[in-house]
Write a structure and sequence with these properties.
The chain is of the alpha+beta class and about 625 residues long. Helix content is about 60%, strand content about 10%. The protein has helices spanning about 5-25, 30-45, 55-75, 80-115, 115-125, 130-140, 150-160, 160-175, 185-220, 225-245, 250-265, 270-295, 305-325, 335-340, 350-360, 365-380, 385-395, 430-435, 480-485, 515-520, 535-540, 580-615; strands spanning about 145, 395-400, 405-410, 420-425, 445-450, 455, 470-475, 505-510, 550-555, 555-565, 570-575. The strands form three sheets. The protein has a five-stranded antiparallel beta sheet, with helices on one face. A four-stranded antiparallel beta sheet has the order 8-11-10-9. The chain has a two-stranded antiparallel ribbon with strand order 1-2. Strand 10 (about 555-565) and strand 11 form a beta hairpin. The longest helix has about 35 residues, at about 580-615.
Length: about 625
């Protein structure tokens, strides 16, 4: 068999085996990335596969491309809203946090490995950053969800902290190769500061400019639908390479480019997202398999004790110190601090960075590579295996989102501010449980057509949608997520055991008029209260003092207090399919009756309040003798 055919056979076989192994491992909660890494080791020269692979240069180049694709995909899936909510915390963790982690872990490497100061700092820098791929995949494993601030902080940090780790690693390698001994001079520090500014500024400029240009080109160039995702990924790699070539951070640039492409309207949006989902998985599998092939397990044995000790310092000391320094000043709670500290996942990035000193001929480089490998394995086993458990124990997990509806995207002209999509009605979705006139479609959302059993239905006489109906919807782009939730299968009742303040599929500001919600979701509100903000309405009608999780039943829905600031309800969620309960029915009856009686009892209540104030304000009588 020819060598080329052998490479194809082995490569395709390993990828397919990895996918099947991942299906089995997910049932026992094992991190998929760990499975890919172990399969690569088993295929290597010390395993049954016996494949000899020690090309560090190819590993570095392939890892660069794969990581760029993964970061671009991460940017595509991150909204501006999530970025704005946590940008301060994420930037601190991605810069100051990485530096603190490198320094503390480097101190441990100095004591445990007998390295010089600069070499020890290099070791700390290699393992200092969390891995974007590991975080993106493990946080969304099996549909798990975290509270918004915690999940966004971890994802944005992992997308932004690679440039800092790359800078520290390359800076330490340069100092070692140039034989600059610690402590470094002020002139050297000034040079490093200039290099850092050039990398970060260059990455930001290249990412923003490249992302905007890529969106413009996608909208201007007429292509076959299948070419748009290829055009997007080639543009992303062009941004990455250009930034690297001119001294900027390519990893920062490609993440920012993905962020812009994912948050702006352009052609082929859905097909680009779906294509990159599969492509990022392929890059992830390929990178971990390759890095597994690159290591020889027998070389890990001599460094195992100090490497495990360094991993313990990283997980239990360095990461918590860095997170505490960055997040406590920003008001993060102790539980949030604990989870962010624990989910400092290390993945392919430390192993990828460990190839740089090997290629540069740094002393003890192979030892550093072996230590980085052990640290990654330890992190994936100890932290990756316990992500879901830790979130549950710290009460930071959310009920899983409903399964996405069966939806087909239909491209409209780019200049329009509306999207069109076709849905298949599921038997448990809200649209199948209510008549059409009671469906809470937001303003601007309309049914274009309904096809049932192959025949077009008359919308004027159609009273409700049935399971299996094919429904064509048109809506403003920002409303499509709400339409998705209406057509999605309902969440299983088992998830209702989650904390009450985390329930409710639709979230609103506390200042939204209650009448607006009543009109959209079909529940009754007394006429004289329709202009009240929903937060004030809840405060007025709840039996007890409002707190997160307090519920008020209104016919077929429940309003849930989601957030309180300065004793004012600022966020409210709406649960459109609550559990049947007598309390909810009594709430709705009480509010309806109160609306009828308020015009009658209003004057009486006013007189009662005036009498009460007069009694309170009267001088108190005392038995003390009068004073002259």
């Amino acid at each position: 068999m020819e060598l080329g055919n052998q490479i194809i056979l082995v490569g395709a076989g390993l990828v397919m085996l990895s996918i099947f192994a991942g299906l089995v491992s997910s049932r026992i909660g094992a991190p998929l990335l760990l499975v890919f890494l172990v399969l690569g080791m088993l295929a290597g020269e010390d395993g049954p596969g016996g494949i000899q692979f020690d090309d560090f240069r190819f590993a570095y180049q392939f890892g660069s491309v794969a990581l760029a694709v993964i970061l671009f995909d991460g940017g595509l899936r991150t909204t501006y809203q999530r970025i704005r909510a946590v940008i301060g915390a994420a930037l601190l963790l991605a810069t100051v946090g990485v530096l603190i982690t490198a320094l503390v872990t480097g101190a441990a490497a100095y004591l445990l490995l007998g390295l010089g100061p600069t070499e020890a700092l290099l070791m700390g820098s290699i393992v200092a950053s969390t891995d974007a791929a590991a975080v993106f995949f493990l946080l969304h494993l099996r549909g798990s969800r975290l509270r918004e601030r915690v999940g966004a902080t971890l994802e944005v940090e992992s997308g932004l902290n690679d440039p800092m780790a790359v800078f520290l690693t390359i800076a330490c390698v340069e100092l070692i190769v140039l034989h600059v001994e610690a402590p470094v001079t002020l002139e050297t520090l000034d040079t490093l500061a200039g290099l850092f500014f050039l990398q970060m500024a260059g990455g930001v400029v290249a990412g923003l400019a490249g992302g905007l240009l890529l969106v413009h080109l996608i909208n201007r160039v007429e292509l076959a639908p299948g070419l748009y995702p290829i055009f997007a990924v080639s543009g992303a790699l062009l941004v990455f390479a250009a930034a690297q070539e001119f001294g900027g951070s390519g990893f920062l640039a490609v993440y920012l480019a993905g962020l812009i492409v994912g948050n702006r309207r352009h052609r082929g949006m859905l097909i680009i997202i779906r294509f990159h989902d599969g492509l990022s998985w392929l890059c992830q599998i390929g990178m971990f398999l390759m890095l597994g092939l690159l290591v020889t397990p027998s070389t890990l044995v001599p460094v195992l004790p100090p490497a495990l000790a360094i991993a313990a310092v990283l997980i239990l000391v360095s990461r918590p110190l860095a997170v505490a320094a960055c997040l406590f000043p920003l008001g993060y709670s102790l539980r949030e601090f604990g989870f962010v500290s624990w989910v400092g996942l290390r993945g392919a990035v430390p192993i990828f960075l460990a190839t740089i000193p090997v290629l540069a001929g740094v002393p003890h480089a192979l030892t550093m590579f072996a230590v980085a490998y052990v640290v990654v394995l330890t992190s994936l086993i100890v932290q990756g295996w316990t992500v879901t458990y830790a979130a549950r124990r710290l009460n930071l997990d959310l009920p899983p989102r409903p399964e996405p509806p069966q939806r087909a995207e239909i491209d409209l002209p780019v200049g329009s501010d509306r999207d069109m999509a076709a849905y298949t009605v599921h038997s448990t979705s809200m649209v199948a449980r209510r008549t059409i006139d009671r469906l809470p479609f937001p303003e601007g959302v309309n049914i274009v057509s309904v096809i049932r059993d192959g025949a077009m239905q008359n919308l004027e006489t159609l009273s409700r949608l049935a399971p299996g109906d094919y429904v064509l919807m048109i809506a403003p782009a920002e409303r499509m997520a709400t339409v998705d939730r209406l057509f999605a299968p309902s969440v299983a009742r088992a998830t209702r055991s989650q904390p009450e303040e985390l329930l409710g599929e639709f979230v609103f500001d506390g200042d939204v008029p209650i009448g607006t919600l009543a009109g959209q979701y079909g529940f009754h509100v007394p006429a004289d209260e329709r202009e009240l903000p929903v937060g004030s309405f809840l405060t007025r009608h709840l039996w007890r003092r409002p707190q997160a999780g307090s519920r008020l039943g209104l016919g077929d829905v429940e309003l849930v207090v989601r957030r309180i600031d300065d004793e004012r309800i600022t966020r409210v969620s709406l649960d459109p399919s609550p559990e049947p309960s007598l309390a909810r029915s009594l709430d709705a009856l009480r509010i309806r009756v109160g609306g009828w009686l308020r015009p009658v009892l209003g004057p009486t209540k006013a007189v009662t309040r005036r009498v009460a104030r007069a009694l309170v304000s009267r001088p108190r009588r005392t038995n003390e003798p009068a004073k002259d």
